[in-house]
From TrEMBL:
Source organism of the structure: Ginsengibacter hankyongi
Entry superkingdom: Bacteria
Gene3D superfamilies (UniProt xref): 2.30.42.10, Single-stranded right-handed beta-helix, Pectin lyase-like
The protein's name: PDZ domain-containing protein
Ranges of residues in domain Right handed beta helix: 258-365
Length: 782
């Protein structure tokens, strides 16, 4: 009898909320005791979802009126309570709706000292982010925030020196942030205290899957009270329940709004492969105000250099036909959108993602779906114990998903091993028409060969690898079942078991019709075993294209501006092909014993490039000539009729790169188009920009005499702007660079050509002439 009565109550509730009603309205001026009608809206998104989930079998839309909605807890939608046919969560008539993980505070600010204010603020736990008028401010830090500094907006070798530590009374709760010693991402540490001998105690460093000591120069500390000494910084003293603020310049403290982060994740949508959540749409909303997640970034991703945190502003796990479109994601502490484990036909379209601490979009499967997985660069499953079955073991991974038309920039504010779009243990992911820039590492990253079928097309990816090194605007690893750091071991296992190299990357990965530009690496970087790629119709603006050891890479019809083809440690019988491409500078091979299936029919923009290739017994049928670009000065690399490249099999291709939404196109940045190096260097008065300074050739006896030179060789620094990277390297006006690494610099052409081959290292030893004397310096490229 009680069961029947309970069922009747549930049915009456469902009818009460759903009969004749397929919309539920939310307003900041509503009440959660209301029904959710237009005239009687509910107050919170959480309550609207509770009401929506009672509407069994219906198509329900939650329409949110304009305003800011602060979440107290992460909204969780699971397969256990989702009985709708579809759910659409959207802004009402495109009104401005903000979903925030931060809550408002109203501090009673009182003077403290030296321009610093303080207020009593009784919190259960210390806040991770503090916002003034919606913008996150830096914690009290050393060195102070410097908008002109490339790495972390300011670093210092003495950040955790004994002398500095001695000035801190109680640093527990502070953080150390540092680049990996090899500049392969970052590592973060929580300070737990200070020993009697003055040394710090701390925990962390797990944010990189190839851990190493922290970088000696690129490091900083934050959340330490004694470092509160610069406008914009803040500190919360948990023991005294007091917040301190050094107000940013120009801030009206009486009119400003203050919020503190309280959530790392905003919305979780969780189902499973057996019971996926289907047909959910989230559109025209803004998401902001989450706490940073760098100390939660622990889970290793196979043998890539990554660890991850499976969370973000929106987490999808076990879904089908979910769409996230026309949303804004900004001022987030961690990831924006994380697509985890089983997901099918997820579409992430036309979103604006910027000023966030982690990844913009990540597609990451379950390691349990991988056959014979290894989780560290130096870990290997013995060949006799290997599972030789092709493909995945389960279906618990993203497949047939889409990231299209998204504007992504200024990400990885704290976490540096991040990407605009990350793909790992997934397959058939389409990444199309995205504009991605101002990122510390790659714009698009594929972390392993599991399981291929991805298509990358019409993306515009630039200003990448800004804070790290040895990476690419597009980067991939292929440390799959067949792979070993020992090339001879790979050769032997592939010879013994043909096809083992394709067990994981079972379908080709296609990279076509993109524009890439990298600052401290390669425009396209296929690293460590990346295999089964088809790369064609791409424009590489700056860093060239690199293929490290791997199999079955077909590279055709690409344009490599101001750089070249980087061939690194190829394998025996790789099957690699490089044909019908346009190349600016000579090839840059490293430790090559084998040259693949075919390298030929390419057009070199310099005679030296062709000559070097042919000296290696390559490019028998290639040519050296002007490509006849329509207008290389503005980045139009279409070829005019009569271009010699056409005779070699090159074909013009569609160069419609980046976002397509009119509103996003208006605000999207564009890469800087540099003059062709073949057009630079030998005419009188020629100059180049390098490290923000201007260099020219030695042209007159007066220039030789002033420097004490015996010849005209070298690149003369004639213009040195304040705050330029050249100035930060302590270069001086009048310096002449005569050597970089092992290469002689006889002209500005040599300077640019040599720089393109070494910039991935992040720095180089240079010999300069200053005050008529030689001296050696190390020049940092960032």
């Amino acid at each position: 009898m009680k069961k029947k009565l309970l069922l009747s109550v549930i049915l009456l509730q469902a009818l009460f909320y759903c009969t004749g009603q397929d919309k539920i309205y939310v307003s900041a001026f509503g009440s959660d005791n209301n029904k959710g009608t237009f005239n009687r809206p509910v107050k919170t998104l959480g309550e609207a979802i509770v009401k929506a989930l009672r509407c069994t079998g219906k198509d329900v839309a939650i329409e949110i009126r304009g305003g800011s909605y602060s979440l107290d807890t992460t909204i969780k939608i699971s397969s256990g309570n989702f009985l709708l046919h579809s759910l659409d969560i959207r802004a009402y008539k495109n009104e401005k709706v903000i979903i925030s993980g931060a809550r408002k505070i109203r501090p009673d600010w009182q003077p403290y000292r030296n321009g610093i204010l303080k207020a009593v603020l009784n919190l259960v736990k210390p806040p991770d982010q503090f916002f003034v008028d919606g913008k996150a401010l830096p914690m009290a830090r050393y060195p102070n925030f410097d908008a002109t500094a490339k790495v972390y907006n300011g670093t210092a070798a003495d950040a955790i020196s004994n002398e500095r530590i001695n000035t801190w009374k109680n640093p527990a709760g502070g953080y150390i942030h540092a680049l990996h010693e090899g500049e392969w991402g970052s590592q973060d540490y929580l300070i737990t205290g200070k020993k009697e001998n003055g040394k710090l105690t701390y925990t962390g460093g797990w944010q990189n899957n190839r851990p190493a000591p922290m970088h000696k120069q690129y490091r900083f500390v934050e959340n330490i009270f004694e470092e509160l000494d610069s406008p914009g910084e803040w500190f919360y003293d948990y023991s005294a329940k007091t917040i301190y603020l050094y107000p940013p310049d120009g801030t009206d403290i009486k009119k400003s709004g203050f919020t503190i982060s309280q959530l790392t994740d905003l919305i979780h949508i969780r189902g499973s492969s057996s019971k996926p959540l289907k047909n959910i749409t989230i559109s025209n909303l803004s998401f902001t105000g989450t706490a940073r997640s760098f100390m939660l970034t622990k889970e290793p991703l196979l043998r890539s250099d990554w660890t991850i945190y499976r969370g973000g502003a929106i987490l999808l796990d076990g879904t089908e036909n979910v769409r996230i479109s026309n949303c804004n994601f900004f001022e987030l502490g961690g990831n924006a959108i994380f697509v985890s484990n089983y997901n099918r036909y997820v579409a992430i379209r036309d979103n604006n993602i910027y000023n966030i601490g982690g990844n913009a979009i990540a597609f990451v499967g379950d390691p349990g779906a991988v056959r014979s997985p290894a989780f560290n660069y130096n870990l290997f499953v013995p060949w006799p114990e290997m599972d030789y079955t092709p493909g995945p073991k389960t279906d618990n991974y993203p497949r047939y998903c889409l990231a299209r038309g998204n504007l992504i920039h200024n990400i990885g504010i704290i976490e540096k091993q991040v990407s605009g779009v990350e793909v790992s243990m997934s397959s058939h992911i389409t990444i199309s028409h995205n504009t991605i820039y101002n990122v510390p590492r790659s714009g698009i990253n594929i972390g392993d060969g599991c399981w291929g079928g991805d298509i990358l097309e019409y993306n515009d990816v630039f200003n990448t690898v800004l804070e790290t090194g040895d990476h690419g605007a597009f980067n991939s690893w292929g440390r799959d079942r067949y792979w070993s750091p020992d090339r001879s071991a790979i050769d032997s296992i592939v010879a013994a078991k043909p096809g083992i190299e394709s067990l994981d990357v079972i379908d080709p990965i296609v990279i076509r019709n993109n524009r890439f530009q990298c600052d401290h690496g390669w425009d396209i970087d296929l690293d460590d075993g990346s295999s089964n790629y088809r790369i064609y119709n791409n424009v590489c603006l700056n860093g060239g294209l690199k293929l490290r050891e791997g199999y079955h890479r077909i590279v055709t019809n690409n344009i490599l501006i101001n750089n070249t083809f980087h061939l690194h440690v190829w394998l025996k019988n790789s099957g690699d092909v490089f044909m019908h491409n346009i190349v600016t500078t000579p090839y840059a091979p490293i430790l090559m014993n084998y040259w693949g299936k075919k390298i030929d029919a390419n057009l070199f923009l310099s005679r030296a490039g062709l000559a070097k290739a042919q000296s290696l017994h390559l490019d028998k049928n290639s040519l050296s000539a002007d490509a006849l670009f329509v207008n290389s000065r503005v980045g139009n690399y279409q070829l005019k009729a009569g271009s010699p490249a056409f005779r070699l099999g090159f074909k013009n291709f569609n160069m419609n790169f980046g976002v397509t939404s009119p509103s996003l196109k208006k605000i999207a940045g564009k890469p800087i188009i540099k003059p062709l190096y073949t057009h630079t260097g030998n005419h009188k008065g020629a100059s180049i920009k390098w490290l923000g300074a201007t260099f020219k050739n030695i042209e007159t006896l007066g220039e030789r005499s002033a420097a004490g030179l015996h010849d005209h060789n070298g690149a003369l620094l004639e213009g040195l702007p304040l705050h330029s990277l050249a100035e930060k390297n302590n270069l001086k006006k009048g310096d002449i660079i005569i050597r970089m690494g092992d290469a002689s610099i006889k002209s500005i052409s040599d300077l640019t050509d040599t720089y393109q081959t070494v910039k991935w290292m992040g720095a180089a030893n240079c010999t300069i002439i200053r005050n008529q004397s030689e001296m050696n310096i190390t020049v940092s490229f960032k």
